[in-house]
Amino acid sequence: TILRAAHVVVPGLTPITGINMGKLGFMTELDADEALEKLPALLAGEGWIDERAMLEAELSTGKEQESKRFFALNDIVVARGEIARIIYVEASIDGELLTTYKADGVIAATATGSTGYSLAAGGPILHPQACQFLLVPIMPHLSLGSTLVLPSETMVKLRIGTIHKAILSIDGHISLPLTGDATIAIKHS
């Protein structure tokens, strides 16, 4: 819910607060039983703003390089599609070729996202206010297997170099098919 709310308010600066209505309350400040009591104080400006870094992705596809822009609070994932085969993802950092990942995919994660899929894939945990972001390979095979911690000024380009389907996932709820001509440019938002 918090991830979807962040997508609604981007690129504005609208504050978001979460009310935990269940058992798992990651990124929620209030429990349901205290919300009516404490929400008026938050709306009156009492409390604090916990600013989180986000990522911006520009997807370019096709011969005419049509592009779409996305924002992510957690992560941007390029991964294999429905066929259980590795994909080839050429990664460049600030215009310089880094490697071609031969893997199930690659995760670009914010500090907020560093405790989710990125952590499950072996990445480190960043401090919640960190502006750096992570580049984490998913199950690499005979290619670079280390996570990179990148400065916020970095531009990462991921180019799909595979003939079978791959997908682009933005915060786990926007999912788009990718073809072999797709390029995703990722930077701090």
How is the secondary structure organized here?
Layout: H1 2-9, E1 19-20, E2 30-31, H2 35-43, E3 55-61, E4 66-72, E5 75-80, E6 87-93, E7 96-103, E8 105-109, H3 117-120, E9 133-138, E10 148-150, E11 155-160, E12 166-170, E13 174-178, E14 183-188
Question: Could you give a short description of this structure?
Answer:
Helices cover 11% and strands 40% of the residues.
Describe the structure.
There is one protein chain. By secondary structure, the chain is mainly β. The protein contains 3 helices and 14 strands. It has a 6-stranded antiparallel β-sheet with strand order 4-3-14-11-6-7. It has a 6-stranded antiparallel β-sheet with strand order 10-9-8-5-12-13, with no helix packed on it. A hairpin with a 4-residue loop joins strand 3 (55-61) and strand 4 (66-72). The longest helix is centred in the N-terminal third of the chain and has 9 residues, at 35-43. It is elongated, with a radius of gyration of 18 Å. It starts with a helix and ends with a strand.
Element string (H = helix, E = strand): HEEHEEEEEEHEEEEEE
Sheet with the most strands: spatial strand order = 4-3-14-11-6-7
**Main β-sheet description:** 6 strands, antiparallel
Radius of gyration, in Å, reads 18 Å
- How far apart lie the N and C ends? 20 Å
Helix share, percent: 10-25%
Number of E strands: 14
The total of helices stands at 3
The residue-averaged pLDDT reads 91
Question: Could you tell me the strand content as a percent range?
Answer: 35-45%
* Unreliable residue runs: none
Q: What is the SS-derived class?
A: mainly beta
Broad shape:
elongated
